[in-house]
Amino acid sequence: EWRKATILGILNPSEMTLAGYLNPNMGNVVAIWEYRWNTREVTNGEHLIGVRAWNGEVYVYKSVKIKVYNGENSIIYGQVVEAAPILVDSSETGESCIPPPRPIPHARVAAYPIYHTTLSNDSTLPHPPYVTYTDENGMYELKLPSGGYRVEVTKEGYEKSSKSVYVKPGEVKKLNFELRRVWSTAILYGKVMELSSGIGIPNATVTAYLKYPPIDMSIPVRYTTKTDPQGRYVLEVFSPGEYVVKAFKKGYKPVRKELMLQPHEVKRLVFRLQKINPYISLVCPNGGERLSRITNIYWKLNHLIPRIPLAVDIQYCYGKEGWVTIIRDYDTRKPPYRWDTTNVPDGDLYRMKVVLKGDPDFDGIYEKILDEDTSDGVFTVCNGVIEDRGTVKYVDLEGGFYGIISSSGKKYFPLNLPEEFYQDGLRVIFRAEILKDYSGIYMWGTPIEIIKIEVEANPYKSAIRGHVYDADFCRPITGAKVVLEKREKDLPCQRWTALSIYFTQRDGFYEVSANMDEESCYRLKVFKNGYRIYYYTLPHLEPNEEFLKDIYLISQSKVIYVDESYNGKDIYLNMNQYLNLTLVQNPSTGYRWDFVDFNESIMEIVDHFCWGYPQHDPPILGASCNETWIFKPLRSCDFELKLKYWQPWEQNSTLKTFNLTIHIIDIHLDLTFPQGVRYPQNASIPIIVSLENRGNVAALVSCPRLMFSSLYIYITTPSGREVKYIGPCVLTWPGTITIPPGAGYLKNLTISSDDFGFNDGTHYYFDEIGKHDVKVVYRSWGVGDNRWIGSIESDGYSFYIESDIPS
Length: 807
Prior knowledge:
This protein is mainly beta. The chain has no helices and 64 strands. It is about 0% helix and about 50% strand.
């Protein structure tokens, strides 16, 4: 490699300057080129140097052999890590909490040769440095000739560090570096330990995230680390603010705390996690009960039990005889088991137990629950026992007596009816044993012996139950408010009064009940944010009658509702939505609404009707009403919807106009990740959510983010459970983005146990083996900046979890 060239000229002394250098004004100069060649990067051995020169007519060649010996190459290697910002001593335990060294990847390591300058006028050009970069673990290696070097390490965001070193020929020398950050950070440190024993919990996850997001979303808002073998952790927080800190690990109840961190502040935070010990107890049957025919067997698991596959063996025994298994490996997540006792002999020394069994893949804290005996007292099996409700009736036969007529009309003659129930017409709920061998003087009804009887609290209470679903996606709606209302029939102007209120459960189930009479009207009112209010007038229900009604709510994001207050405004309408326009008119005046320059190739009128006339008999003449049009977009473009309110027979009779600018967009949602890929248990799964504008109009929409509730990811496990995002959620509106026509917006996400779990806040560790189905729903919110309001859903995708893949 050529390093330097120097031109020297020699003729005769008269042609040289006083300084002894070449006079450039002289002619016929013979040039002598002197080359300085650095041989340190040349391998040892013989080399042939060839020179070619042009003499004006031909090339002249000259060569010479040389021997090069530089000695053996030396090696400098080491690791570049981030310097520990602080050494914290715990005042409680006396332990030192030192942050583990964090390697710095892609740092530049340069070795500059050290030259000893002389007093001569000959200047030496320094050799360029030997340069390399650290790998992902912060390791580097430099191969260079022996000699002295100044090794310098640099990385953006860190202070520069350098050291001097001398290596002999063939020597291997280790040289480590620590770089300090150029900005100061807050330190959060502490320990995660068990609540009962105080022993540190290794490999627990500690997550800290900002409770309120900053305006600049480029600032980190979430920090995560794992505890060391002693349960200690250190978190470096770069942005001050109010933080939510959460510690959790599989087999323990998560703990959440909140605190404020200031710049340069050091705080200690200790977490004590409660170990989860699943247990089971038998609820029904209990001691002293009498069973007959079909009996529901209920058991109770403690609410802290993790979401793992569990099964039970249900067994019974009589006296000191052996246990008989009714059913094996019954899934605890299924409904209560129905036991048919008709094949079991009658007796009063029966006992029952439920044996809780863990999945074979789980061990540790679950071992102690195996073969747990949950028997609780002795119960009786008697297949002649009945449970019913009815009315106490005085029967005027043979001196008179009191009987019970059930709701189905069956007559019972109770031999031991308590005197306080001697009331004709009293509604009761009773449990009794049928006396098959009894014969008495009263030839009325079936003889029974009362086991338990009580007054029915609400004799005329009727129940309405069912489920509430999304009309578009046919998915159960959780948290919808169902109200049973009442109003007198003869008072149509009277306000509706709420009798019963119920909020739907996770599966959309609801149940309301009330004492209903024939003199009143009853209706169901169902509503939830983002859906149209639903009303349903109930038919007449008999006392104690059960009425089943499933309700489907129409999402407002599928139908955009517009009235006269939108006159002169702009709205966005997606191709999968409908536009509902309602204007007030008075037909008795001769005025009506008509379209102006309506283009049927852009918008289609799918329905048109008038409604809202005053409900009076006879009707009030001259009253106003509502006129509604429902439109469906046919193609993406900007559309001007214009109407005028006029009398058609008068050319200049326009009383008012309605103008609405509609930006018809075509937004699609897609989910991208390798199809059919199989992952190990507790894996982190990367996905890409993309919004694509396939229309011809730029779309103003909400920024898709999980924490801002504008993006929803639903995962269905092989066992049918629903997993969703349970990470930090921010109670604020998402930002706005603009997607040009033909463009898209990509969002890279990671599905992991840190952020995904169940409705009760329990994390899902992706430990169920098999196929997981994934679906994404995107919702754009309106916050006053005229963005599109609506929701779209992606196609279904799936991935697989296998236990034999190494993590």
